[in-house]
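Thread amino acids onto this structure.
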């Protein structure tokens, strides 16, 4: 009597084998494992030769576990078998020549590299669930996100007002707008920079993951320029350098704050992300250069007015000019530029590595 064999499709993962037997309306399904690596299949059903009894035998390349999971549907019989040792097989059967009734299941087929990526993704998902189950959920997470969203929204609106105001005045008045920038925008800049002190407090309270030290360098540096160099010297308030300092600051912030604002609600705009992590590369060093020019221009004014000078004993002289402090500050300013630039560049690299992992 001729033995009828059904069409069988197969696929694998590192730890499993999948078989799909093309046998519709299967009944009396008998699947068993002979030894450690030989599968025996027998069933009644409708196959390529009509309604008959079909059977086949497969001697696997390596031993498998005795547990066999099978599910019969109107169209097919699905079989899942676990490998005894989790590794990639170069073929399914012990013999190099595969049986005529056996073919790859392209609906489930993966090559080794794809399977490794799938396995890695499963492990990462399991690890993430495990970590999330161990970490206690913060009952105030909604309140914290709401606070951060509102903070970034207020700062975005403030710096947007400064940027738009300066841009409009530049188009209308041209270079004349350089010399009254402080008088038209200083109040809003004072407000924004006083609010920015919260960016130093937020990392200390654990509200954000950014580092405390880079935030302190940037906020303290800007406030020295704004409150000491510009705010205390009337002679500096009419200089063109104020325009360039304020314009560069606001150009960076009108993209940084909305990026963080949308991050609070789990939204990511690709263009905004690119602008936030790319525009600072030319703008941040230019801003530091403009601040340095402002400090250099203020040095003779501090020497002349003796503002903030430190009194000295008569044997050493009358006083120590504040300009010496600013000269030291210039050195620290460019050191801060290096530290912050390195920090921001690392942030950018981590961001794009994370995006590539998500894509793959």
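Threaded sequence (360 positions):
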């Amino acid at each position: 009597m001729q033995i009828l064999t059904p069409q069988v499709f197969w696929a694998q993962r590192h730890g499993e084998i999948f078989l799909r037997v093309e046998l519709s309306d299967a009944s009396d399904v008998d699947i068993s494992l002979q030894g450690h690596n030989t599968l025996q299949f027998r069933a009644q059903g409708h196959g390529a030769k009509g309604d008959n009894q079909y059977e086949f035998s497969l001697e696997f390349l390596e031993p498998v576990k005795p547990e066999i999971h099978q599910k019969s549907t109107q169209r097919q019989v699905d079989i899942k078998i676990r490998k005894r040792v989790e590794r990639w097989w170069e073929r399914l059967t012990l013999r190099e020549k595969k049986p005529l009734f056996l073919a790859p299941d392209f609906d489930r087929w993966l090559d080794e590299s794809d399977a490794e990526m799938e396995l890695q993704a499963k492990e990462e998902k399991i690890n993430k669930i495990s970590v999330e189950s161990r970490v206690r959920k913060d009952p105030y997470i909604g309140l914290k996100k709401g606070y951060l969203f509102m903070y970034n929204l207020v700062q975005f609106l403030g710096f947007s007002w400064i940027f738009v105001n300066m841009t409009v005045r530049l188009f209308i008045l041209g270079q004349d707008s350089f010399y009254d920038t402080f008088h038209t925008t200083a109040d809003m800049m004072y407000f924004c920079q006083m609010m920015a002190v919260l960016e130093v407090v937020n990392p200390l309270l654990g509200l954000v993951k950014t580092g405390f030290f880079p935030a302190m360098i940037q906020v303290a540096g800007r406030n020295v320029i704004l409150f000491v160099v510009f705010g205390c010297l009337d002679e500096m308030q009419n200089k063109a350098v104020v325009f360039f300092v304020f314009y560069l600051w606001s150009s960076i912030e009108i993209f940084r704050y909305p990026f963080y604002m949308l991050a609070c609600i789990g939204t990511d705009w690709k263009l905004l992300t690119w602008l936030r992590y790319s525009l600072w590369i030319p703008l941040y060093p230019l801003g530091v250069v403009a601040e340095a020019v402002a400090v250099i221009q203020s040095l003779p004014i501090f020497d002349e007015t003796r503002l903030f000078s430190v009194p000295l004993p008569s044997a050493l002289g009358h006083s120590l000019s504040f300009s010496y402090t600013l000269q030291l500050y210039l050195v620290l300013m460019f050191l801060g530029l290096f530290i912050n630039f390195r920090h921001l560049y690392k942030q950018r690299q981590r961001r794009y590595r994370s995006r590539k992992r998500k894509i793959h």
